[in-house]
Amino acid sequence: MILVSANRTRIVELRRGIERGEADNRRTGVMVVERMPTLPFQRLFAVGWEEMRRLVCTFTSPGVVVVAVDAVNKRVAGSLCLQAKVGAANAAVVGRHGHCDLYLDGDPAMSLRHLALVVAPLAAGATRPQVAFRLLDLRTRTAFLDEGGRRLESVTAEGATFVAVGSHALFFLVTGDDTVWPESASEAWKCIPERVYLDEVGAEPDRWARRRKSPFPEEPTDGAGRMAEGTGVIEIPDPGPVDNGRITLVRTRPGPARAQVSLVGDGDTELGALQVTAKGKSQRISVGERAAAGGILLGRYDRCDTHGATVVAHHGVSRVHLLVLSVGDAVYAIDTGSTNGTFRRGHDDEVRIVRLEAGQDLVLGDDLARVSWTPRQPA
Questions:
Q1: For residue 41, how many C-alpha atoms fall within 13 Å in the half-sphere facing its CB?
Q2: What residues does each domain of the chain span?
Q3: Over 80: is that where the pLDDT of 83 sits?
């Protein structure tokens, strides 16, 4: 039995003797094609089933188990158990950077910080906790693929979900229920609920590469920043009444991947403001409800919403350092596997995910920059 505590809510196992200290964290250029090849999920499921079954049978806490299968070498590359918490979200990051929770090396099609897994808070006092989770692409060039080979940027689900990231198949299974899993991979595959996609919101591979208008008025822009046009929504017929015990409803939605002119768009409601301070200079970012729901990236790279802000220009701030995301009625900051970490002011321990509250400062790295959140005051 795998036990977790309040201070240890994720358990990671890496295979093939991977050493994080030897991680190759150089930037990777990825060639993007119109349609990526579809991985043979059923065959790869058989490769990883022994590990999956071991985890879902021993990780007794409600949460999500992730098993990564290397499609090239046909072997398990690593696994992650992430506990769902009562009243608070939990998160983990998958990527090719040594500081990611699930570190997958040797895949040139995977970004350093590629995918965030966010588990929604559990309801207090529920007799049968319902685990819901969300997968968010961190504005990579390739995003991730569903089983049909469609490139997506964000999905939410409450059951088994499979996606491809680079040359890896990621299998997400919910834990903490009374499911009895067979030893046979072929029989287990029959027990996996069918994934029914209610809609498809496609990702734009070059979406963050387009120059955008800086949210900081004092910073120069090239005048070409504009709202990127989306790929639209492909309507899928409503499946009608469904038995949630037999299918997994997967809802796709825009992630932190649509280039935006402003973090408070037309018709949006301001949720609050992020204040980023470094080297005696401070810059304010107004945040709208839609932007927070999709996700806001803070870091040095032009794929981040803080691109052009001198306060995060220090090399010690990671290229993609923080994901700011609303989950339910709360706003969270998620460290995306940064090199120098994220801390709460006055605390020595690094944080992976923390709820943003008024008056609380987050410190990036060795006091390289500070981030504070000011919620919008009721009218």
A1: 21
A2: 10-201, 262-375
A3: yes
